[in-house]
Amino acid sequence: MTQSEQHKAAKKFSEDWKDKGYEKGESQKFWLDLLCNVFDIKDFSSFITFEDQVKLDHTSFIDGYIPQTKVLIEQKSIDKDLRAPIKQSDGTFLNPFQQAKRYITELPVSKHPRWVVTCNFKSFLVYDMENPNGEPEEILLENLEKEFYRLSFITDLGSQHLKKEMELSIKAGDIVGLIYDQLLAQYQLAKNIDMATCLKSLNMLCVRLVFCFYAEDAGIFGHKSMFGDYLSLNFEFH
User: Fold this and answer.
1) Calpha distance 126→208 (Å, rounded)
2) Using CA atoms, how far apart are residues 98 and 84, in angstroms rounded to an integer?
């Protein structure tokens, strides 16, 4: 599947599932649709399992588990808040992630997930179990056309999950390299300049520029391209 095809598939998926989502009746259909039609999984029957039993004080069931990529899925209906406690069958109150963590304690170590995904059809919360106390990443169904790559760890061990970050790093590095080279060339033309001090200041400037590029991508400055637009208006690169 090409990236263009995947964009179209993700858009169709988000449109098809908008305002839908009943946990007991549609969870498996939702995940099979996502895996097969957006992430191009052919042999879904051996890729994902549903309703695996877990022995707690009572028998519970894991909504979804992907052995190859070690992803555990806890699915809720569209009207459920993924961060809010929900009453369990034993009377305790746990949010979906806490519920998943309780299941994990009863699994063999070899089946402990690297990723936990809680979902209510309109939102995915992704927890990296390398940092189980960290804040989850959130991917909204309505944004899936542009952000489907953020869920690709589900099928490819995370290499594509990091691809966008890698592309951004390379792009930022290229731009900073151009700025560095052009500023250095200007300093080298100047007379009576302390090059050691110059290089120290230039390196500090570049570090701060890298921070600004990442802050821009995170939306800290306002709209996504604000810092890049500023550079384009005030500098000309060749």
Assistant:
1) 30
2) 10
Residues belonging to the chain = 238
Separation in Å, CA 173 to CA 145, 211, 213, 238: 27, 11, 10, 16
- Asked whether the beta carbons of 180 and 206 are under 8 A apart, the reply is yes
pLDDT digits (tens, 9 = 90+) for 46-85: 899 999 888 777 778 899 999 999 999 999 999 999 999 9
Token digits of residue 58 = 């009572």
Q: Please say if the pLDDT value at position 161 is more than 80.
A: no
Helix axes 226-234, 195-217, angle to 10 degrees: 140
CB distance 224 to 217 below 8 Å: yes
Cβ atoms 120, 77 nearer than 8 A: yes
**Cα distance between residue 164 and residue 167, in whole Å:** 5
